What does this fold into?
Amino acid sequence: MKYELYYWPEIQGRGEYVRLALEEAGADYVDVARGSRGSAAMMKMMEVHKGTPPFAPPFLKAGKLVIGQTANILLYLGARHGLAPKTEAGKLWVHQLQLTVTDLVVEIHDTHHPLGPSLYYEDQKLPAKKRTAEFWDERVPKYLGYFEQLFTENGGAYITGRRLTYVDLSLFQIVDGLRYAFPKRMKAFEKKIPGLVGLRDRVAARPNIKAYLASDRRIPFNEQGIFRQYRELDD
It folds into this structure.
C-alpha cells in the first residue's frame, strides 16, 4: 500500500512524528503537500463532508481509510509495521505513552504562544517568557523525568524494552526539538536524563532514520513550527 500523508509543507510540526514512523518502517508514502499537487490537495480532502473527514492535518490516507490525529495515525502504523507490541495490552501502553507525548507537544507550543495561536509571538512576548520559565521549572522535569524513569526501570535499549516502537521515534523528536528551541536550557538539563539522550542517539543511528535525517525529506527546524528558537526565552 502506498500511503498519502497530508500535512503543511513548510514545517515539521505534528506531521514529523508520522514521517519518522513511515521512514523507519521503510513504507512507501508520498508527502502530498510537498509535491506538485501542493497544499491544495490537502485542503480539498478537508472540505469533504462525508465519510470520516479529518478535523485538521496531519492525516493519512491508507487505501480507503482516512485517519486523523497524530497518535491515532501512529496507532494504525505501529500495528502494521512492527513499531508496536503485538499484544493488545502492549499496543494500548504505547498508545498511552504517545498521548502523553502529545500533551507535552502542546505545552512546548504554548511556551511561545501562551495566549493563543491566533496572535503573533511578538504580541505575547512577556507572557511567553513567564510561561517558558514555568515550563522549564515544572513541566519539563515532570514529563521527561517520567520517561527517563520508565527507560531506567525497563533496562532495555528503548522505552518499552529491547524493541523500538513509534514512541521512541517521538521521544527522539522531542529531544532534538528541545535542543533546537532551547539550546542553553536543554544542555543544562540533559545531565538529568542520560537514558533519553542515549535513546535519542540510538534512534538517530538507525539506518533508515540516519538516511532520512541526511535527506531533503527532513524539513529543517524553523520559527514557524512547534519548536521555535527565541533567544529571550532561552535564558
Remarks:
- The mean pLDDT is 94.
- Residues 125-154 form the longest helix (30 residues).
